[in-house]
Amino acid sequence: MKDIQDAPRQEMIDIIARIAGADGDHQTSIPGLSIHRHSVAAKLNCAAYKPSVAIIVQGAKRVVLGEETLVYGASDYLLTSIDLPVLSQISLTSPEEPYLSMTFQIDPTRVPALLDTIGHGAAKSAGSPRGMAVSKLTPDLEDTALRLLRLLDRPHDVPVLLPLIEQELLYRLLLGPHGAKLRQMATTESQPHQIGRAVSWLKEHYSRPLRIEDLASRVSMSVSSLHHHFKAITAMSPLQYQKQLRLQEARRLMLEERLDAGNAGHKVGYESQSQFSREYARHFGEPPLRDVGRVRRNLIGRTGGEAEMLSEG
Q: Which intervals hold domain HTH araC/xylS-type (predicted)?
């Protein structure tokens, strides 16, 4: 018999396992909430993480951000406060006990009003400025997440209770060990907020040539300040960030739209096919043709396989 303290997590396991009946990343009927089930460990996959909280209820995962690796497992949560291109890998799973997790997108526009209520000083010191961090799941945050999952079986409650649960979730995160990350991203005069604007511009214009001076001017920062704070928050320079966006989009184009390597590289901004192939192999561990062929072979017969290429859970 399980310890009574495990009851909330067991209920979360039961809900996710029941609703995510097959392996894959599943969008739910609740806006911003996705659930994830994977019973087979795989190679590193590219992923695009948005501001969100991801909670693992069974299994474990590692996320590579720049040159850093974050590992989190059952009863941990991953807080992401800014859009980040990463590599991710489910590291602990089995058919008997599949990897199960939930991800809820954070709406940054809801943070300022909540801060006005609780006070800007309530969020703890940020410590590291990095836009991604792992923490232990507290009983209060676990309870809030469980009530969010329960709404999946109570669709009539969603219009009334979802805004309240979302506000409580943000409140718990703001009071947690990395709450200042959310506070800073919502404070317009802060450097993290300026970096967020730079990230938004890069995401929209990743295929265009990048001049750091122009980007710094757009977000009202000096070149040296942009470099320093961009790397502190994203673990990458602006050029490295742009490169990851390009390579991830090129891989998606080859997998989902069946473009060849030359056309995919050109479409994301590479003028030299050889440079594209070199950088692709360095990032993904294999040249484009070999990598895409391997992924396609692995996806044969797997439900929801292609969605894993940009998973977040």
A: 196-294
